[in-house]
Design goal:
mainly alpha; Four Helix Bundle (Hemerythrin (Met), subunit A); three-stranded mixed β-sheet; 3 strands
Length: about 170
């Protein structure tokens, strides 16, 4: 393969995109004193803006879906855990069902409450009995499934661009 431009001549590379967010970089070609200018257009992915009415409808569907899932009545397992979110993940796997968005947020907050405490590095199942911890999560889950307003959930989702990180994947899309 033959090179069409000699190595000693500078080469300008320009992107064909006419974006206003161009980035200029100087490239040194091995210390020979010749510099090439490289212009690259960087287009960040557009942030998905979901209209409020669509988000309210999604929250309504989500809340109705979560209400339809029964809370397990036979819970006899002792699940070892070191954090509230870890216990939540184990519960999801063991019972094969999602936890409510608000329960996931609550578990995250409970983990954050431990930061700086004297037992922060101790596994949580040494501090709180696993059966009591699991019962606490199911109680919060029942409250969130049965009594939460979809308008409240939608407002929380609107204020948190990363809300989808706390919505378990079993969620119908519009």
């Amino acid at each position: 393969m033959k090179r069409t431009v000699p190595w000693s001549e500078p080469v300008d590379l320009i992107s064909s995109d006419d974006s206003s967010s161009d980035t200029d970089m100087e490239v040194n070609n091995g210390g020979h004193g010749h510099r090439s200018s490289l212009t690259v257009s960087i287009n960040p992915p557009a942030k998905e803006m979901i209209p409020e009415d669509v988000l309210i409808k999604r929250a309504e569907m989500y809340q109705e879906y979560m209400k339809a899932i029964p809370i397990p009545s036979h819970r006899g397992s002792v699940i070892p855990f070191s954090s509230w979110m870890g216990l939540g993940r184990s519960i999801k796997k063991l019972y094969g069902q999602p936890l409510h968005y608000l329960t996931n947020i609550l578990l995250k907050q409970w983990d954050e409450l431990r930061v700086g405490s004297e037992d922060e590095h101790m596994p949580l199942d040494f501090v709180i009995h696993p059966c009591k911890a699991e019962a606490s999560i199911w109680l919060a889950e029942e409250i969130h499934r049965r009594t939460s307003s979809h308008h409240h959930v939608a407002r929380l989702w609107l204020s948190d661009p990363m809300h989808h990180a706390f919505v378990d994947p079993i969620f119908p899309q519009l």
